[in-house]
Automatic annotation (TrEMBL):
Residues 22-218 form the Sulfatase-modifying factor enzyme-like domain. It comes from Salegentibacter mishustinae. GO terms for molecular function: formylglycine-generating oxidase activity. This is Sulfatase-modifying factor enzyme-like domain-containing protein. InterPro entries: CTDL_fold (IPR016187), Sulfatase_Mod_Factor_Kinase (IPR051043), SUMF_dom (IPR005532), SUMF_sf (IPR042095).
Amino acid sequence: MVFDAENPQVWWKFKEGANWKHPQVWWKFKEGANWKHPQGPESNIKGKEDHPVVQVSWYDAMAYAKWAGKRLPTEAEFEYLARGGKENQIYHWGNNFEKATEFVNFHQGDFPSLNEVKDNFEKTSPVKSFPPNAFGLFEVSGNVWEWVLDTYYPNAYSKLEQRSDGYFKEYFNEEQQKVIRGGSFLCSESYCTGYRNAARMSSTPESGLEHLGFRCVKDVE
């Protein structure tokens, strides 16, 4: 799926008072969109070799990680790494949102009708466009959401503490929605503050989106 806020039908819906916060208003299916053609067959990744890969499903990410001898991080691992050892910070750079454009690629302005592009990127940005977090990791928030291993549950943390019988079998059910972390270039203060360290959302595992990618981890041997 691709972001489609420039579609005249979208603005017509806004003017008619439709619920613009519903994703169907500003997303559309694009046949032929894939990681080589993020916005559809007419697009390509020439000049974007340093950008995060997008339009990959959870299954795609899992397959690549296995091929590379790595794996997707768990949700808990992702949050630990994103925080960079700073447990009480809202964002990976601290608690001051006024500095956000110095540290993260996100949507500035009233989403989706106005993008002020104060961070200099309308969509994805090359890796290392912003300073790393305290662990030396780049783009741990903003730019693109990232798939993690876990199945999504609203009460995931309480389930983790309970460790009930059958927990792991249920928790890693491939057919259920998967957790995505980190936020993307579409997140904003007016709609989705996904760049917060604690923010978590989900998507169906077969989804391919132009603001959703992944990163791999490897166990220490």
